[in-house]
């Protein structure tokens, strides 16, 4: 008879299963005894423990209700009565489940102390002054402690009884363990002997196939499994040899094509103008192109296969890569203007950077790619644009001043002699000149900040004083809009290290915007909070809010929220405010829900911290 693998496995498994059946029968007998002991533990005392726990929880909520009653009479009374009913229900259940000695006396003590506690609370309701100035500490707290202690005694009594029953069950379990263990060890030894003998006959050809598979995995396709077995494993070895022959043929046919594709991919990577650094999940460098080599100051052959910090030497870039590898999401600086500046061999270049994850078809993370985009030309264009805006604004300031003076002089001298239509045109010209002057002034301020030419006269200043100065300047506008301006500032806010005039300008701009978009009767609120080494100042309004499509670009230049009933400004106020706050080392952002108002928040460094280097 031919012994196939199936028959060999059935013989081994049949022997083991027979032994397991014997062990299982003996184990069931012992488990039945153990189950009886365990049931006694649960059925006799568990319900009493649950009742005690629920009474304790209800009593603690009643105690909280007493404290609440001293502040909110109606709400505290409702909470006390609701939990009083709960304690009464669980007390009744415990009285229906008296099973051990001493439990009846403890329940009687709970009943009497609980009645005394509720009577004292009822007395307090009828006569609030019956217990003096401190009714809670004088009468209610001692009564609460008495009834809670009694409930705890009920729980402890039942727990001790369960421990005693558990000891009895443990003795049964010990005997079951030793008896089942002895029989089980004997069965295991016998089954192990049978299994080892048959396993040796089955595993030998499998090991040959395994060794050949390892060689193929290493790239050696010139392998062949030698076996004289005629069972299923013998057929497996024959089919394995056929597969190895097919792989050899495939390798010979496709190796040149694969090498060509690799060379093509490498050429594409090397020709990309942006810098690329590829890092695997273990933070080891896989590849990089020449632009990345220049930007990071390393050679690919020096860092390939090594940790990414050997190539970067930049903690900020490493943190971005680590965020991407750990989260599997794209990581970039929070500020678009945050760039990597490289100065080498007399050449200065600026790079924007972002880290993107690389995933396979199963959405598994394979690697992370650091993309370094050269924005040197854009930086230069932005600088030239700022210089042009500054020059044009400066050149426009003088003629606008002259035009404004001339138009106002004409209005003062001959305004009364003009017809109504001509007078309206003259007033419109005056308003347009003032609007142009405000725009030119804003452009000049923005240019100074962007170029670093605006002087910052910093000193320690109270946040409340800055807010009061800004609010005082807008008292007329508050009255005109029939709004309410509330300064909700804590007295213990630390002083901030700022230029008071610049920060007051920011507050004035935020408050003016809040009032502009508020309806009559709305409230504008200014608040402050110390967080770490900064103070967070918030301006909150109840206006129309900011549409979601504007919130990501509200601090850009010349961006204004469309509104039919609110006159527009220059669109530079928030951009200037952002630059001023950034110059102080802080941040500014907005939280807004359309139709529910907006909250603008910015941070300032506290005066006790190291001042920002100017």
Quick overview of this protein structure:
With 614 residues, the chain is α+β, with helices and mostly antiparallel strands.
List the helices and strands and how they pair.
Blueprint: H1 5-71, H2 73-95, H3 103-126, H4 135-217, H5 232-271, E1 275-280, E2 285-288, H6 290-296, H7 300-303, H8 308-312, H9 315-327, E3 340-344, E4 347-359, E5 365-374, H10 376-414, H11 420-451, E6 459-461, H12 463-473, H13 475-480, E7 484-488, E8 496-498, H14 500-516, E9 523-531, E10 534-540, H15 548-551, H16 573-583, E11 588-592, E12 598-605
Parallel strand pairs: 7-9
Antiparallel strand pairs: 1-2, 1-5, 3-4, 4-5, 6-8, 9-10, 10-12, 11-12
Helix pairs in contact: 1-2, 1-4, 2-3, 3-4, 4-5, 10-11, 11-16, 12-14, 14-16
Strand content: 5-15%
Question: Spans with pLDDT under 50 lasting ≥5 residues?
Answer: 610-614
SSE pattern, N- to C-terminal: HHHHHEEHHHHEEEHHEHHEEHEEHHEE
Q: Strands across the major sheet, in which order?
A: 2-1-5-4-3
CATH class of the largest domain: Mainly Alpha
Find the structural class using helix and strand composition: alpha+beta
User: What does the radius of gyration come to?
Assistant: 42 Å
- Termini distance? 95 Å
Outline type: flat
Sketch the major β-sheet.
5 strands, antiparallel
Q: Helical stretch count?
A: 16
Per CATH, the architecture of the largest domain is Up-down Bundle
Our count of domains comes out at 5
The count of DSSP E runs of length 2 or more, i.e. the number of strands, is 12
Query: Level of helix content?
Result: 55-70%
User: What is the residue-mean pLDDT, rounded to a whole number?
Assistant: 77
Q: Which fold name fills CATH's third level, the topology of the largest domain?
A: Four Helix Bundle (Hemerythrin (Met), subunit A)
């Amino acid at each position: 008879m031919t012994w196939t693998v199936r028959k060999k496995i059935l013989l081994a498994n049949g022997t083991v299963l027979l032994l397991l059946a014997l062990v299982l029968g003996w184990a069931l007998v012992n488990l039945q005894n153990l189950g009886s002991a365990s049931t006694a533990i649960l059925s006799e005392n568990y319900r009493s423990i649950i009742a005690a726990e629920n009474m304790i929880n209800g009593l603690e909520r009643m105690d909280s209700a007493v404290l609440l009653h001293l502040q909110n009479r109606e709400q505290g009374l409702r909470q006390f009565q609701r939990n009083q009913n709960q304690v009464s229900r669980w007390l009744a259940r415990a009285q229906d489940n008296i099973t051990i000695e001493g439990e009846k006396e403890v329940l009687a003590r709970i009943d009497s102390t609980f009645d005394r506690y509720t009577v004292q609370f009822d007395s307090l309701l009828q006569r609030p002054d019956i217990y003096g100035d401190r009714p809670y500490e004088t009468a209610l707290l001692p009564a609460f402690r008495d009834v809670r202690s009694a409930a705890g005694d009920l729980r402890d009594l039942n727990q001790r009884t369960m421990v005693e029953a558990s000891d009895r069950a443990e003795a049964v379990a010990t005997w079951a363990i030793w008896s089942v263990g002895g029989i089980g060890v004997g069965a295991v030894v016998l089954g192990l002997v049978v299994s080892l003998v048959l396993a040796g006959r089955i595993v030998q050809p499998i090991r040959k196939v395994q060794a050949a598979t390892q060689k193929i995995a290493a790239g050696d396709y010139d392998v062949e499994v030698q076996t004289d077995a005629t069972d299923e494993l013998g057929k497996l070895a024959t089919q394995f040899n056929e597969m190895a022959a097919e792989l050899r043929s495939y390798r010979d046919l496709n190796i040149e094509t694969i090498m060509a594709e690799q060379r093509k991919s490498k050429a594409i990577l090397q020709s990309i103008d942006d810098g690329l650094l590829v890092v695997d999940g273990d933070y080891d460098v896989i590849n990089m192109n020449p632009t990345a080599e220049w930007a990071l100051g390393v050679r690919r052959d020096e860092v390939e296969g090594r940790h990414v910090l050997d190539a970067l030497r930049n903690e900020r870039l490493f943190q971005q890569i680590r965020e991407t590898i750990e989260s599997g999401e794209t990581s970039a600086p929070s500020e678009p203007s945050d760039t990597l500046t490289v100065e080498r061999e007399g050449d200065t270049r600026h790079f924007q950077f972002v880290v993107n994850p690389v995933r396979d078809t199963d959405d598994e993370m394979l690697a992370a790619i650091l993309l370094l985009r050269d924005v040197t030309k854009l930086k230069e264009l932005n600088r030239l644009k700022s210089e042009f805006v500054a020059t044009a604004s400066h050149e426009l300031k003088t003629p606008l001043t002259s035009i404004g003076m001339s138009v106002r002089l004409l209005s003062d001298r001959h305004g009364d002699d003009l017809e109504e239509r001509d007078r309206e045109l003259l007033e419109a010209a005056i308003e347009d000149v003032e609007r142009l002057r405000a725009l030119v002034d804003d452009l000049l301020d923005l240019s100074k900040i962007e170029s670093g030419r605006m002087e910052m006269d910093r000193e320690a200043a109270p946040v409340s004083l800055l807010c009061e100065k800004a609010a005082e300047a807008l008292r007329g506008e508050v009255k005109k809009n029939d709004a309410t301006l509330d300064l909700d500032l804590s007295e213990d806010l630390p002083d901030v290290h700022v230029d008071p005039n610049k920060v007051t300008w920011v507050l004035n701009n935020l408050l003016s915007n809040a009032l502009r978009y508020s309806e009559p009767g709305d409230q504008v609120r200014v608040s402050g909070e110390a967080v770490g080494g900064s103070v967070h100042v918030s301006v909150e309004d109840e206006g129309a809010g900011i549409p979601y499509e504007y919130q990501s670009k509200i601090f850009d230049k010349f961006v204004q929220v469309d509104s039919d009933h609110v006159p527009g400004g220059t669109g530079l106020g928030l951009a200037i405010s952002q630059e001023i706050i950034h110059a102080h080392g802080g941040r500014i952002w907005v939280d807004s829900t359309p139709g529910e108002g907006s909250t603008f928040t910015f941070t300032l460094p506290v005066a006790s911290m190291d001042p920002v280097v100017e």
